[in-house]
């Protein structure tokens, strides 16, 4: 099994390498790929030093799969070329997510729909992944009528430069800003680009990707994205209205029985999900589970996950593992 990692030196790319080691995929050859300035440098993987190569050389090696995490521009330029050469591409960018011919996959939800003909597979947005995974069994049992979500997103979701900005601000260095405002000791309701309707592109992703993953255009989603000064975890306050009535034990049972979900819901003991405790973990954590008494079939939950793990790298590697286990590559 030959696998290429395109963008191996970035925040997500480096975590992909960690997760590949942890999940012990049966890799015979790994091809780390990065930009020209990194070609020839070496990474350490499975007790051996491997040289970083360029994307054209990786294409010539004909790996079975290539996990792309080098941004939308690279994905749009190269993903189809890899696919046309028989290489299955798992893409972390937003380039292919809403393409009607490209599956948008969270393995626990819709991985079973993948076929050997799916040569480009899109990894959803980090904030979408953790929300839809938490709602999977609830959707199947009760349906989803409306979701109102406010996110509290880590600076690592923007990239290494944003982490550097926050760390610099903590040293009273306010140069080289990635964000339009100071992020340390602050938060702002701005993720992505503002659109004519007043929402942002990050908020729109939560709407469109949720519907595509569940294959249900009737789900109403209203989102507000907020950036906060933490590293390694996105948090979400999610208000849900279902089509069918429920009791809260049924909601808790649905969450408990969802693969990849960990319940942390003992408020009397101050136990609830937090970015600090979700950091560097592959699971999605859910707590503050309570009924919304203002609507007939409503409840609230608090969802936290490491955005570089399940929100990106882990989900991509889990897609790769699913393809291998089911002989789809």
Brief sketch in words of this structure:
It contains ten helices and 13 strands. The protein is α/β, with parallel strands linked by helices and 329 residues long.
Level-2 CATH architecture of the largest domain = 2-Layer Sandwich
- What's the CATH class label of the largest domain? Alpha Beta
- The rough form would be described as globular
User: Number of helical segments?
Assistant: 10
Structurally, how many domains make up the residues? Answer: 2
Order of helices and strands: EHEEEHEHEHEHEHHEEHEHEEH
- Radius of gyration, Cα only, in angstroms? 20 Å
User: What's the oligomerization state?
Assistant: single chain
Q: Which consecutive residue ranges, at least 5 long each, have pLDDT under 50? A: none
Q: What's the β-strand tally? A: 13
Major pleated sheet: 6 strands, mixed
Layout of SSEs?
Blueprint: E1 2-6, H1 11-23, E2 29-33, E3 42-45, E4 48-51, H2 55-60, E5 65-68, H3 72-84, E6 88-91, H4 107-110, E7 120-122, H5 126-142, E8 146-153, H6 160-169, H7 201-214, E9 220-227, E10 234-241, H8 248-256, E11 261-263, H9 275-278, E12 284-292, E13 298-305, H10 309-325
Parallel strand pairs: 1-2, 1-5, 5-6, 6-7, 8-9, 11-12
Antiparallel strand pairs: 3-4, 8-10, 10-13, 12-13
Helix pairs in contact: 1-10, 5-7, 5-10
How would you characterize this protein structure?
- With 329 residues, the chain is of the alpha/beta class.
- It has two domains: 2-124 and 312-325, Rossmann fold (3-Layer(aba) Sandwich); 127-307, Dihydrodipicolinate Reductase, domain 2, CATH 3.30.360.
- It has ten helices and 13 strands.
- The strands form three sheets. A six-stranded mixed sheet has the order 9-8-10-13-12-11.
- Strand 11 (261-263), helix 9 and strand 12 (284-292) form a beta-alpha-beta unit.
- Helix 1 (11-23) crosses helix 10 (309-325), helix 5 packs parallel to helix 7 (201-214) and helix 5 crosses helix 10.
- The radius of gyration is 20 Å and the shape is globular.
């Amino acid at each position: 099994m030959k696998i290429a990692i395109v963008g191996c030196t970035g925040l997500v790319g480096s975590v992909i390498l960690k997760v590949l080691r942890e999940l012990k995929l049966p890799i015979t050859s790994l091809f780390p790929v990065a930009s020209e300035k990194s070609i020839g440098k070496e990474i350490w993987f499975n007790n051996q030093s491997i040289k970083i190569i360029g994307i054209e050389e990786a294409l010539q090696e004909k790996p079975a799969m290539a996990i792309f995490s080098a941004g939308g521009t690279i994905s749009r330029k190269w993903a189809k070329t890899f696919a046309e050469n028989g290489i299955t591409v798992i893409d972390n960018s937003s380039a292919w997510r809403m393409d009607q011919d490209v599956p948008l996959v969270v393995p626990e939800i819709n991985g079973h729909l993948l076929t050997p003909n799916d040569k480009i597979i899109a990894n959803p947005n980090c904030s979408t992944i953790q929300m839809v995974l938490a709602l999977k069994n609830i959707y199947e049992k009760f349906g989803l009528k409306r979701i109102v979500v406010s996110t509290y997103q880590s600076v690592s979701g923007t990239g290494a430069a944003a982490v550097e900005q926050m760390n610099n601000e903590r040293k009273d260095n306010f140069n080289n800003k990635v964000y339009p405002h100071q992020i340390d000791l602050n938060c702002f309701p701005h993720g992505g680009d503002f659109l004519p309707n007043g929402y942002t592109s990050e908020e729109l992703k939560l709407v469109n990707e949720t519907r595509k993953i569940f294959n249900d255009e009737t789900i109403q989603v209203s989102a507000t994205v907020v950036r906060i000064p933490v590293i390694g975890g996105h948090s979400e306050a999610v208000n849900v209205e279902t089509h069918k009535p429920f009791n809260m034990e049924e909601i808790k049972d649905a969450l408990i029985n969802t693969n990849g979900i960990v319940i942390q819901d003992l408020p009397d003991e101050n136990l609830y999900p937090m970015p600090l405790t979700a950091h560097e973990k592959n699971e999605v954590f859910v707590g503050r589970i309570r009924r919304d008494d203002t609507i007939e079939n409503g409840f609230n939950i608090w969802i936290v996950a490491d955005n570089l793990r399940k929100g990106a790298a882990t989900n991509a590697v889990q897609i790769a593992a699913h393809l291998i286990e089911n002989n789809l590559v």
